[in-house]
Amino acid sequence: MTDAAELQRRTAELLAAHPPASTDRLDFLKARFDAGLAWVHYPEGLGGLNAPRSLQVVVDAELEAAGAPDNDPRRNGIGLGMAAPTILKYGTEEQKQRYLRPLWVGEEVWCQLFSEPGAGSDLAALGTRAVREDGGPSRSSEAESGGDWVVNGQKVWTSGAHNSRWAILIARTDPDVPKHAGITYFICDMTDPGVDVRPLRQITGEAEFNEVFLTDVRIPDSRRLGEIGEGWRVAQTTLNNERVAIGGMRLPREGGMIGPVSKTWRERPELRTQDLHQRLLKLWVDSEVARLTAERLRQQLVAGQPGPEGAGMKLAFARLNQEISGLEVELRGQEGLLYDDWTMRRPELVDFTGRDAGYRYLRSKGNSIEGGTSEVLLNIVAERVLGLPAEPRTDKDVAWKDLAR
Amino acid sequence: MSTQPDLLYSEEEEAVRAAVRDLLADHCDAPGVIARTESDTPHDLAAWKALADGMGLAGLLVPEDKGGQGASHREVAVVLEELGRAVAPVPYLTSAVVATEALLACDTGDLLAELASGRRIGALAVALNVAPGGAYQVVRHEGGALHGELTAIADAQAADVLLVPADDGGLYAVDASAATVTPQIPFDLTRPLATVSLDGIPGRLLGDAEVAVHRALRAGAGLLASEQLGLAEWTLTETVRYLKERKQFNRPVGGFQALKHRLAQLWLEVVNLRAAARNAADALATGEDTDVAVAVAQAYAASVAVHAAEEALQLHAGIGMTWEHPIHLYLKRAKADSIAYGTAGVHRARLAELVDLQAP
């Protein structure tokens, strides 16, 4: 087992062989990956050393102290948080070798082609079709066995599709079986001519998301992840990792949305009212308690006793972000009537706190929708944590093609 | 904050929990607690003896060289979670925490050891609603004797010794048998209140009242959150259990989404309360960030415990309104706890000073 001392030794070796000050950023990151210090809990040869996940902090601290460049994880959150663990679990050896290194170093950014206009919370109802082309040589240069898959459909809410090289994609490969059974999971090349990415301008004025139209997109079978018809099970890995990523942050006191509004309160006594004071204090307490809950969850994970609390963290932060940013708009009074900038932009990453209060208020409305609506998450808590009876299901044994749409 | 608080439970703490839960299962079942509330002996002194004498839990906060167990607020918090879960009518919070902390501020060996051993029960003669730092009533110290009346003193009926603040700034130990202790009719039947009258009673000077009372109430407020956590957990667990069994419209009632969401919401609050309560217990144990941790816990805990008990009543519907079902014990305790050692509003106001979010 690789322990902390061993990781420190290997980190020192990496720094000695590739001094950050005189090494190209990307070269350093590649060397770090090859040294197994990228995500230490991954297998050897795939950026890790089979070490306990909790020891990553040891490596990160040493590298940060040495001024080493990082891989800018916020730019490739979907790649690192969702695509990578899914490829690791279900990918072939060739797939792991091909995709994980450029993903981790950030050369290749990933997005997620899951949601559709008709399949949001009911994700398994998705209608994008992937049809196997029988016979004849594959037209794709990468295809070795069997025919390509030909994909047609529309996806939506695709964060960062405009910056992405690859996408994880789920599509329907068998409409004649119940909806969860007929789905297959693919890796989609976003540079394929059949992929049309269109900005989806949202409530804030920005277009951080996209609509993605897929027209006769050819995917070689070698880019299928998991078995045919097993896509729903594979997607669960992706989605479970999505929720962990949302709940696993470590924040200092006032590290979240409560920070900016507390600062304004302290610096602008003329804005204070009794009503706002009462609401601010309540939200300050709620924020501090949510922070402690996240910290407790983190300590449980480090101690190897993961609890179900993660399912609740997203609910809590969504509500808090919305209430706090709403309060902040009111606190600003006349300034609350203004907005910083409605220009349509296509940001590389989502910034919840960097812009003004009005932006925070509008963007946070998405926090109770994206990554699973609060209503769906409450059902999950009630059924999986508390063991209450599931919702009655009318679609369980019905073929997807016979479902009402 | 220089270090991160430890928000988990240690194996030793879990062992304490298991032992206390076993003991309470034998001593403190709900029908027994309900029957006791209507008797002349509202306190369960057999359970107290088993906890204090048998298991040595009354002395957890007292160093070993002063006759205690030399443990910390973290273990006490676990005991209180279990006592809250059972709404146990024992003077643990008042004697083993509040009175004990007052004595720890005064350096009085013999009395502290007696409380730690559980042989005697102590009560701080400050009204239960007073918050740390809040104003409290005092008695007159005149001619070497104490004169006056103090009200809403929790567990005074069970106490052998009363710790009484006087107008000369001193905290005095008074033999409870020398005082007149008159039971009041409490809202929470499981934590009885009484009036204490002193009519020229001699007292032994222990130390400075202000320091001792503040320390005692701060520990009481911080650890009360763990009692509130245990209480809220019991009401949530019981309600979930009941709603899985109870059928209406040919379905378990717990399958209706409107109710599922309410219970999930409650679960979330309980999870949050656990983190806040653990943080307060750890802060009291380490002395790091204690004032903020206690104020945060008490600003948060009351609404969760009351909400959990109120939801339990509503979701049990008719049966929840009856005297025979124990929910009313929990609702009464939760509501009284929301006042004990300061309301959430008082703690929020304190927090405003501590974290520099001043009022207009």
Can you tell me about this structure?
The complex is a heterodimer of chains A (405) and B (360). In chain A, 39% of the residues lie in helices and 12% in strands. Chain A has 405 residues and is an alpha+beta fold. Chain A folds into three domains: 4-70, no CATH class; 80-88 and 108-228, Butyryl-CoA Dehydrogenase, subunit A, domain 2 (Beta Barrel); 236-385, Butyryl-CoA Dehydrogenase, subunit A, domain 3 (Up-down Bundle). In chain A, helix 2 runs antiparallel to helix 5. The longest helix of chain A is centred in the C-terminal third of the chain and has 29 residues, at 274-302. The model of chain A has no long low-confidence stretch (mean pLDDT 91). With 360 residues, chain B is α+β, with helices and mostly antiparallel strands. In chain B, the strands form three sheets. In chain B, strands 1-4-5-8 form a four-stranded mixed β-sheet. A four-stranded antiparallel β-sheet of chain B has the order 2-3-7-6, with no helix packed on it. Chain B has a two-stranded antiparallel ribbon with strand order 9-10. Chain B is globular, with a radius of gyration of 20 Å. Chain B starts with 10 loop residues before the first helix and ends in a 6-residue tail after the last helix. The model of chain B has no long low-confidence stretch (mean pLDDT 96). The interface between A and B is large, with 45 and 42 residues.
